Fold this protein.
Amino acid sequence: MELDNLDDLSLEIDQFVHYCVRSKTKRLIDISGAIVGLTITGIIAIPLYLIMQLDDPGPLFYKQIRCGLNGKPFWIWKFRSMIVGAERQKHLVKNQAKGHIFKNENDPRITRIGRFLRRTSIDEFPQFWNVLRGEMSLVGTRPPTPDEVKNYCSYHYKRLQVKPGITGEWQVNGRSQINNFEDIVRMDIDYQNKWSPLYDIKLILKTIAVVLTRKGAY
């Protein structure tokens, strides 16, 4: 699937944006965090690639089309945590989540090193590149796939009025254990209501604590 084929999707979505999108303070926090994050990403990339070849040979990175602000499609980047060609086997895996998300606690497509990457959230580090480019924010909403967005009702579109984030309310309040899409929507809208630069910093600090304890991840 190409980005050009998804232009109509973003045009159908209300172009209203939350005021945090225009915040220079939020953007400064994003750029500062992205520079630090990309530095760490560069340091771990080579040893991670070598380990990955011993586990499941293939590319270091994985990219997928996600929907950002007002549904605008972009390529999201991650360290690969699944076998090569995992998307083609998705229909063979049972969805344990409710609503417009896909989750399986024991997804057989995840590699051994991939499970470690996910539990520690290291697989998310390449997304600092998305943050630097302005496609994502350090803190925001969970970035949905186009297939998910196409099934949204009008209420769900409200979560697309901010940039998607590497972390957010869902990350500090359950992570992978949140299996109901409506709960994610509620958290995303709650984030918009609570937003301030200080609240972003609070969520970033809470995310670090959650990641270090591996709480709620699989």
User: Anything to note?
Assistant: The mean pLDDT is 89.
